[in-house]
Amino acid sequence: MDASEKAAAVKEAAADCGYIACGITHAAPFRLYETALQRRMKRFPEAVDLYRPMLDRVDPRRDAAWVNSVIVCVRDYGKYKLPSGMASHIGRNYLADYRIPSCPDHAMPHRMTQELERLGFRVERGGLPDRLAGARAGVVRIGRNGFAYHKDAGSWINVEFGAPTRFCPLMPQPWTVHAPPTAGPASGPARPEPSSVPI
Fold it and tell me: 189 or 140: which carries more pLDDT confidence?
């Protein structure tokens, strides 16, 4: 299986697991993220202890030198019809949190990890700036408000795989590099109506 076939298999696996988008990009350091953190630490020296540990997320290869690709999946939690009384007091992201065992999406990350391993990948989940990784992979745009927006689902999404998944293909060549899309409007695209699937 060549690189393009592997990429297609990864994206098909993501769709089968319930993700609405999947992108693959290179594992170069996230220098924009590093610059933003340095600027914050300089501006708010009293918060340096909060921001300094976040610098660990700059380089995907920091704790896993074998990584040469990053995969990013987008989960749409806006598809669920949530109780209106609760949704007006508690953020939808928390009401539809896939970490809650009763959430229908609870098994998605575990299933995706299994699918990647079945395809022969070594997986290292999490530890990256998820929204920037999503923009670099071409699956989201970053609005002026810092939110990630998917072209169909708006901002009621989680950019993950872990946050996101790092993996190593079996072939030596890197994946195609995708230029990050330009920032979109702060309001993002219109949100489609939630489905009748209760959560």
Answer: 140
